[in-house]
Amino acid sequence: MPSLLTLTDVMGTGHHAARAAQVGPGKIVAVVGDGAVGLCAVLAAKRLGAEQVVLMGRHTDRTDLGAGFGATDIVLASGGEGVEEVRKLTRGDGVDAVLECVGSMQTLTTSFGAVRDGGIISRVGVPSYTDGPIGMDMIMRNITLTGGVDPARHYIDGILPDVLEGRIEPGRVFDRTVGLDGVPDGYRAMAGRQSLKVLIAP
Q1: What is the C-alpha to C-alpha distance for residues 145 and 116, in angstroms, rounded to an integer?
Q2: For the CA atoms of 23, 46, 59, 201, what is the dihedral angle to 10 degrees?
Q3: Mean pLDDT confidence for 93-102
Q4: What is the pLDDT averaged over residues 163-177?
Q5: Of the candidates 36, 37, 29, 22, the residue with the CA atom closest to the CA atom of residue 150
Q6: Is the pLDDT of residue 197 over 90?
Q7: In degrees to the nearest 10, what's the CA dihedral of 83, 88, 90, 96?
Q8: 33 neighbors 127 (Cβ within 8 angstroms)
């Protein structure tokens, strides 16, 4: 049941990030963010055949789960240092696609630094900004900026068999279960990074 629930939420969003970025066999992908959406984006990228999946996060318990989901490399650094590590992992070229799953200006800037010229940045993190680095530097690098809101219902039929047959287990992102009375505490736990994703069991 937990894995089925993710299809209407975080797994659908992670999958949308990967699909919008045209992730497929042989692609080199970076996922920015180790929250539930980012971890599901790792799972989605691996499921779609990505050759290398670099997870950028700061919480080792979460990045460990990301490795279990298929991340081939973990980058714990952020900002310029994180970009430098991604570049080293890709022989200086950058990745084919970045799945940006946070929504901050810093993570958007990191995404521009990590992607190769001609690559794709797919944003599914809700933006906390209204302006971004979309001027001459971006257009001269031929970077595609895409993403948006997950059309979950559109994806469910395609992902459902892999869940039912046990090939993927996105429900592992749930690390706490609460009843209806515990919903406020559940939100506080997620906001305070004490919990990754809370499952409500009425």
Answers
A1: 13
A2: 110
A3: 98
A4: 97
A5: 37
A6: yes
A7: 10
A8: no
Q: Are 101 and 31 in contact (CB under 8 A)?
A: yes
Q: With beta carbons less than 8 A apart as the criterion, state whether 190 and 196 touch.
A: yes
Q: Which two tokens stand for residue 152?
A: 């979950």
Residue 14's contacts (CB-CB under 8 Å, 6 or more residues apart) are 37, 38, 39, 40, 41, 42, 43, 44, 99, 101, 124, 170
Output the pTM of the full model.
Answer: 0.95
Q: Please, which residues have CB within 8 angstroms of residue 88's CB and are 6 or more apart in sequence? A: none
- pLDDT level of residue 177 (50, 70, 90 thresholds): very high
Average pLDDT, the chain: 96
Task: Kindly list the structural domains of the chain, giving each domain's residue range(s) and its CATH number in brackets, ordered by start.
Answer: 2-152 (3.40.50.720)
Least confident range of 9-13, 30-34, 73-77, 135-139: 135-139
Q: Identify whether the C-beta of residue 150 lies closer than 8 Å to the C-beta of residue 12.
A: yes
